[in-house]
Amino acid sequence: MNKVGSFIGRYQLSHFIILALLIFVVMPLALDSFRLNMVGKYLTYAFVALGLVLCWGYGGILSLGQGVFFGIGGYCMAMFLKLEASSPENTAIQSTPGIPDFMDWNQLTELPWFWVPFQSFTFTIFAILILPAAFAFIIAVAMFKRRVGGVYFAIITQAIAAILTILIIGQQGYTGGVNGITDLRTLHGWDIRTDEAKTILYFVNGLLLFGCLFVARYIIKSKLGRLLVAMREREDRVRFSGYDVSAFKIFIFCAAATISAIGGAMFTLQVGFMSPTFVGTGPSIEMVIFCALGGRLAILGAVYGALVVNWAKTSFSESFPELWLFAMGALFIGVVMAFPNGLAGLYQTYIAPWLQKYVPEKFHWIITNRNPEESGAEIAVAGETASEDEKKSKAGELSHAGN
Amino acid sequence: MLETNKHIGPKDFVLSIEGLTVSFDGFKAVNDLSLYVEEQEIRVIIGPNGAGKTTVLDLICGRTKATEGSIKFKGKELTKMNEHQIVHAGVGRKFQNPSIYEDLTVFENLELSFPRGRNVWGALTFRRDKEVIDKVQEVADMIFLGDKLDMPADLLSHGQKQWLEIGMLLIQDPELLMLDEPVAGMSVSERKQTAELLNRITKDRSVLVIEHDMQFVADIAHRVTVLHQGQVLSEGSMERVQNDPKVIEVYLGH
Amino acid sequence: MFADYSMAELTSIFAMQGFAGLILFSVFVLMALGLAIIFGQMGVINMAHGEFMILGAYVTYLTSNVFSAYLPESIYGSYFFIAMILAFFITGALGALVEWSIIRHLYKRPLDTLLATWGLSLIMQQIYRSVFGAREVGVTLPDWLMGSYAITDMIEVPINGIFVMVLTIVITIAVALMMQRSRLGKQTRAVVQNRPMAAAVGINTEKVDRLTFALGCGIAGIAGSAFTMIGSTGPTAGQLYIVDTFLVVVFGGASSLIGTVASAFTISQAQSTMEFFLSGSMAKVLTLLTVVIILMLRPEGLFSLKMRR
What we know:
The complex is a heterotrimer. By secondary structure, chain A is mostly helical. Chain A has 18 helices and two strands.
């Protein structure tokens, strides 16, 4: 626990480096501009998955409405870009020049009040960071102060995602409706549609993702992270050790919301539009599987989970679209039942020990996750879940045989 | 009320419970209960199953909300406070079954109970400095776990888990310590050690203990309160309580 | 805004709107009943509930096809009752299979159950799409369900709507009686209240779990069967109502059937009445939002006194 070690354990550092190499060196070298942009899009989902690792994996709070926050970030950015793209010169042919095209189509004659501040880039950035946290705060205070959690929270967040989607689609004149906000062109005059711009945005996205990973890493390695772990097991004990349990849950949910919103904003920038298809209940629950596949307690796993699922989704929809839902459904069931710790769990249980056999001992620090200096709450929790599941499934088999 | 306060004001009593009632769907688990605990007193609550012993502790620490009555701790009304505020006021509570963080090590269990960085910002910026390490070591030595700091808590024996939870309370240095069956499931030698531990740690605080083991009660209690059907049946020294015909009736009459 | 209408017109508009609300109410009740049993009694969230309902609808569709293709026309009018029974047993059997293969391993992890059943719902949707095609299918209503019944000159109610409502009432009463009186109902409630004790007195709790889950799914199958009377069926139709249904169950307090019915009534009436004043989507947004806000302020639901977490 000293110097760098206290911030990122040396052993974890190796995993960060491998991921950084993958994102910043291997991908840009191996992929053409189109595919790289696609990976960039996948990586924006990694923000959401990372948020879910914090609030679901550590906090035990499953939100089925993370698309809401992704959407808020994405829409804020899209509103700013749309206003820039809707200059009076660009929209001269409209009956009301200077407002976004879809508003003109819906007979609006002036910019709605809530669009006005998005003419400022500073306000937009502010809104992307604050708005989702504020919204999450309201939800979280209402729920956690009353000690509501678990499936109730999941259902309520899912309903909120559904409500927001219906609202966006219904209020076409103000939101662009089901098509979303499209035809985004420039950021402060810089054309974001060129290959060069997309490559730069890819790197910006990667850097922001690493920023968020470090923040998440700091949170889970702080006392707050251990408290979250403790809270999932013994909420009452934490409460009677003098902690306001709800405050910690509110914090972690807001943090997850903000991280998701950053991803949403980067999505809009890289993909060039934002629509309600990324907000609703379907996409929101899909985002949970990115996190679950990566390993619900693994912050780096969230990135791999988002990459793998989305890459698979693209490949499937290119070649066997009808099989994709089967694969996705099987993934949900399989991960939950067989690998509750996801890829990270698989790596720790099978791959790391196997690699250790073939790699000289002095390089073992690259492979293993275990840091002897640290207490390894993460590992202990992962181990706990796995062994519990084993016990349970064994018990299940036995009792079934007994019937 | 003023009249009463002259005699039993907050000065003399750390904890004064008056007219405490809680009803669950009409069933009064605690019924018009009054109880006063003095400074540095070890008070043991005994009574048959369902007498409302654990409910009284739940009420004091805020886990259950009272229907009526008042609980004053050093002059502060606890019934209007949240659980964590009650802890901050200086009340610590051990649960009946050892309630520790089994995923974490002994050190971390104690560290999480260390009374610093209790809000979000404090927890984010909490540093494991010398003060924390020294205090954890001191408490760990006191609870006979000084050499097991790095052990995951789920590997401890049942008795050691009980001690660890007591240690988690000690590190908060509460003025009122509430223990729900601290020696349940312990071996004879562990019981002795626990009695010794309790006698040592109660020097500068008041303790409220629920216990069934009469030998243990006799070892530690200054005074004993017998609860029956949510009310005080008898109160006084162990000897007096044991010879109270009402108590004998309740314990043997059933 | 009422100035343009005469009193008689207003009355009939409200009556028709109220009737539309009653049909929505029937759909909610039928879907929520099964869910309320599974969630309320077992604490399990079945995200594939909508797909079980759709299975019932497809079973009904197939039965009607078999009747019209192979059986004399004179008995076509009775296909629906056969279909409903088939739907109940087929979805119930599938429910038991799902409970055995997935749910029972996850009783201690309710959030994971939610994810696993979501996966199941995706698979079921794709199966429907592969087998029945992506397009919606409908059944030919028997003659006696066609047409409408005129209460006054201006108020007409469709007969299929009345039929679905009557069916809803019958099924609700049957389920309530079953939970109150039958052996399974008593055992289920015993298991919910105290599992170890129920096991100790000789109740096979695993079997009770399986039957309860199967029963909930079977009721969803009946709901789907009834659904074909008033609408067409597509592979993703189950997703359409799932959020509303969950809100109905939670709003009703999760544990009581009366609460579920009352909450279905409130939500459906609120929504259909607001639809008169606002666009359909805004009516839904306002209704759901109100429900969510009430649930945030009163998490135990509107009609339940006991707190469940």
